[in-house]
Each structure stands twice: as C-alpha cells, then as structure tokens.
Specification:
The protein is mainly α. The protein has a domain of about 220 residues. It is about 70% helix and about 5% strand. It is built from 20 helices and 6 strands. The protein has a two-stranded antiparallel ribbon. The chain starts with a helix and ends with a helix. Pfam families: CTP_transf_1. Its main location: membrane. It is found in: Membrane. Keywords: Lipid biosynthesis, Lipid metabolism, Membrane, Nucleotidyltransferase, Phospholipid biosynthesis, Phospholipid metabolism, Transferase, Transmembrane, Transmembrane helix.
C-alpha cells in the first residue's frame, strides 16, 4: 500500500517537499471540481459513452461561446473592454479561491478583503494610464479627470500603500509565514491576470483586428488541436497534459496558420476593424474611422520560384497584415499552448481538474483564457517592436495643451528644422 501511495504521488507530480509543505500549512488539496452539465444535455446524450458525451458537450458549449464572441464584437470596442474586465475579475476570483480553499483552516484575517482591494488598486492604476494615454483630449477637457490624471500615479501609490499597511497590521503570531505566502499568491495572480488583461485593452485600442485575430487564432488552435487529437491522436505530447498529442499539436498548427491568413484577409478590408479607437471632440463620442494604413491596403507580392510551378501563379495580392498574421498564428499554435501546459501544471500541483466549473465541459473561465493571456503579451510586444511608430494625432493633442509661449517655441523650432531640410521652401513654392 505504501509503495502504491508513493507511486501515485509521483504520477501526480507531488514530491516529499510538497507533502511537507502541505502538512506545515495545515491544509488539504481541494477536491477536484466536476462539470455542472445541464440536465437537458445529460438526458439527450445519455446513450453515448463518456468520451463522446464529453465531445458533444464541449462542442455545443464552444459554439455557444463563439456566438457570444460574435455578439460582443458587433457591440463595439467599449463593450469588448468591459467584457475583458469582467473576465479578468472572474479569473482572479478563481485563482484566489483555490488558495483560500487550500489554506482556509487558519481563517486568515483580511486575506480575501485585501486580495480584492489590491485588485482594485492595480486596475485603477492600469486603466487610468490607458485612459490618459488614448483619450488625452477628453481628460484635459474635463476638470475632475484632468486633476486625477495629473496626480494619477501618486493616488495609485497611496492606495497601494494603504493596502500594504493593512496587510502588516493584519499579521498574526504563529501564522506569519503563511500570511506572507498568501500575500505573494495574491501579487503573482495580479501579475498574471491584471497585467495581461491590460495589454489586451492596449491591443484593442490599436484596432479591433489586433484583438480579434490573435484571440481567434488561439480559439482555432484549441479547437483544431482537440479535433485532430480526438480523431488521430496516438502519440503523447507532454506529461503535464496526458490527453495532448503530437498529432493534435501539428494539425492545430497548420489549421491555425491557414485560418489566420483567411480571417486577416476578410477583416483587413473593413475600417471598423483596422482603425484605432479615438475620441472625437466634435461629436463627443468614441469613433473607429480613419484612412487605412499601408498594412491594410492590398499589395502585389512575387511568389518564390519554388512555389510558382506548384500554384501556377507568379504574383499574389495580399494585405501586408496577412504576413504579420502568420507570426501571430504561429505563436498561437506553437508557444501559446505552453500557457495551457503551465495552467495544467498548476492544477496538478493542487490536485484539481479545473479552476472552476463555470462552463460545462470546459471548466472555469481561467481554463479558457490560460493561453489568451500569454498571447496578449506577445501581440503587445509585437506591435511595439514591428508596427507602432510615432502617432501624429497624439503629439498634436499634447501640443495643444501647452501654454501659448511653449507652443510658439515649438513652432519656431519646427519651422527652422524644416527650412534647414529644404522642405518648407518647397512647400511655399508649391
């Protein structure tokens, strides 16, 4: 019996140090969660095996989630931003609840209250930075917003410092180590969840296409890897996720790259997807309208000689964004799954099946967004490194908020620079 117990621990990835830590903290791993499959589906699928029943439940709920995704896209970027924030809060709740359930026996004072307080502080900081950065004109026009913007970082620091002091005052003798452990748990959760959701918002404001295509690629890869693995999977991919197979991984990669190219081609032709979100002073509303950049204008590309004999074409018309979509879909299918593997390792460490049972057949919200957060970081870094340049509209907005003498100084400096470059004289002649 002892040997069997030790072997089971090894299979679950638990070592002696894990067991000692568990004993020291006085907690026991939470019981694995089970999916709350609707009774209607249970009755309709009662004659199927558990494997096929799970396939149908996941498929039906996946279609429902995709339809919901289409609806919120139709409602516009502001609704999307609200949904991202709701998802972030739910993911934070699921991770914090796991920590609370594992070590609940000590009834730590203020733990949950402080966790949610720190979430509020971090969101205030990040969303305040976003509003100031993207809607500078609106902020400068409204007196309360202008004051909040001017002292935003000081207010954010003061709020965090208040929570820090509350944590120190809540320390209880004999439980110091556990309380600092949970303090770290909260902050790592904030780093993973809130920071990544903030980057998703930044991607969204660059243009909805930078939000929709990466997310859709991750969804496509998840679905196609599951489909290829379900029907053709034979070779295990990684021990952390025993159901993942090489067949599903490779099939998901090719399907995702093809899907990314097609989706990018369709979306690149619509200004509502390609234009950044901006605030219009004349209409006092947020607008998504602009002259499409070169990324979203059809260009003619020469096909490599090796492929010309295969496809029979010498040139092809593509949007430059489609080339970037190859990088996005490649990351989504090759590196993105490691976010899921990381989550699988986390769940195995605490002997749970899913983060929660919010979505039947899928687990919790965090189970669906574990790869999305990693993808959001990559997209943000990709835009900053290869896409984004100086934004003239933002520079003009900041220029108009300066004092008249400062504006005049900048004007004279710019005029002298253009004269030296020979550009101003040419413009006057024209």
């Amino acid at each position: 019996n002892l040997q069997e117990s030790e072997s089971e621990n090894k299979l679950d990835g638990e070592t002696a140090s894990d067991s000692e830590s568990k004993s020291e903290f006085g907690g026991s791993p939470p019981v694995p969660t089970s999916d709350d499959t609707p009774e209607v589906l249970n009755r309709a699928l009662s004659n199927l095996s558990s494997r096929w029943k799970n396939w149908w439940v996941r498929g039906i709920l996946t279609l429902a989630m995709i339809m919901f995704f289409f609806i919120i896209i139709y409602l516009g970027p502001m609704v999307l931003m609200t949904i991202v924030m709701c998802v972030q809060i739910k993911c934070f709740h699921e991770i914090i609840t796991i920590g609370y359930n594992v070590y609940h026996s000590y009834d730590l004072p203020w733990f949950r209250t402080l966790s949610w307080y720190f979430l509020l502080c971090v969101n205030y900081f990040f969303y305040g930075e976003t509003v100031t950065d993207y809607f500078f004109t609106l902020v400068q026009r409204e007196e309360p917003l202008r004051i909040l913007s001017k002292y935003h970082r000081f207010i954010s620091f003061a709020l965090y410092l208040t929570g820090f002091c509350m944590f120190v005052l809540s320390l209880v003798k004999k439980h110091y180590r556990l309380q600092f452990y949970m303090f770290g748990w909260t902050h790592v959760t904030l780093l993973i969840v809130v920071t990544q959701s903030h980057l998703i918002i930044h991607n969204l404001f660059e243009g909805m296409i930078w939000f929709i295509v990466p997310i859709s690629c991750v969804i496509c890869n998840d679905i196609m890897a599951y489909m290829f693995g379900f029907f053709f999977g034979r070779t295990p991919l990684i021990k952390l996720s025993p159901k993942k197979t090489w067949e599903g991984f490779i099939g998901g990669f090719f399907a995702t790259v093809l899907f990314g190219l097609l989706l990018s081609y369709v979306m690149s032709g619509y200004r509502c997807f390609t234009c950044p979100v901006e605030f219009n002073n004349d209409t006092n509303s947020f607008t998504v309208d602009c002259e499409p950049s070169e990324l979203f204008q059809l260009q003619e590309y020469n096909i490599p000689l090796v492929l010309q004999s295969v496809v029979g074409w010498k040139t092809v018309q593509m949007y430059p964004f489609q080339i970037h979509s190859i990088a996005l879909s490649t990351f989504a299918s090759l590196i993105g799954p490691f976010g899921g593997f990381f989550a699988s390792g986390f769940k195995r460490a605490f002997k749970i099946k899913d983060f929660a049972n919010t979505i039947p057949g899928h687990g919790g919200i965090m189970d669906r967004f574990d790869c999305q957060y990693l993808m959001a970081t990559f997209v943000n870094v990709y835009i900053a490194s290869f896409i984004r340049g100086p934004n003239p509209s933002k520079l003009i907005q900041q220029f108009l908020t300066l004092r008249p003498d400062q504006q005049l100084h900048i004007f004279n400096t710019l005029k002298a620079h253009l004269v030296d470059k020979g550009m101003l004289g040419g413009l006057e002649d024209a």
